[in-house]
């Protein structure tokens, strides 16, 4: 998928990528694949005591234990913006991103 995303970016498209890192190599591999291309790295996370109940309500494409098994995998990576979604509804998460100084700086660089 990295090659496809890079091709879309190189063709002038903007891309929003939602990735759940399965192991510690995923985010560094994306950063390497994107190279010097401009990107805004956002980490959305939540406490495990919040994520596990959320996981239990999902039936499609989910496997019990994913939340615990993937918890913290990419937390040590460098991100432009981190948002704890533990107490936020999805629309509040979007609002936080749209109002963030990090997004304003990214857009001021001429992207988006």
Explain the overall architecture.
The chain has 112 residues and is mainly alpha-helical. The protein contains six helices and two strands. A two-stranded parallel ribbon has the order 1-2. The protein starts with a helix and ends with a helix.
Keywords:
single chain, 112 residues, mainly alpha, 7% strand, globular
Shape: globular
First-to-last CA distance:
21 Å
* Strand order across the largest sheet: 1-2
**Treating each run of at least 4 consecutive H or I residues as one helix, how many helices?**
6
**Helix/strand class:** mainly alpha
Rg (C-alpha, Å): 15 Å
Assign a percent range to the helix content.
40-55%
Q: How many strand elements?
A: 2
Strand content: 5-15%
Order of SSEs: HHEHHEHH
> Roughly what is the average pLDDT, rounded to an integer?
89
- Profile the largest sheet: 2 strands, parallel
Give the uncertain stretches in residue-range form.
Answer: none
């Amino acid at each position: 998928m990295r090659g496809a995303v890079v091709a879309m970016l190189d063709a002038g498209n903007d891309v929003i990528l939602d990735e759940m890192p399965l192991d510690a190599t995923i985010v560094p591999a994306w950063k390497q694949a994107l190279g010097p291309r401009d990107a805004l790295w956002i980490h959305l996370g939540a406490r495990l005591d919040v994520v596990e109940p959320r996981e239990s309500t999902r039936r499609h494409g989910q496997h019990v234990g994913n939340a615990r098994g993937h918890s913290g995998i990419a937390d040590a990576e460098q991100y432009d913006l981190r948002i704890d979604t533990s107490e936020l509804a999805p629309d509040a998460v979007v609002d936080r991103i749209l109002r963030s100084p990090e997004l304003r700086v990214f857009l001021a660089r001429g992207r988006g």
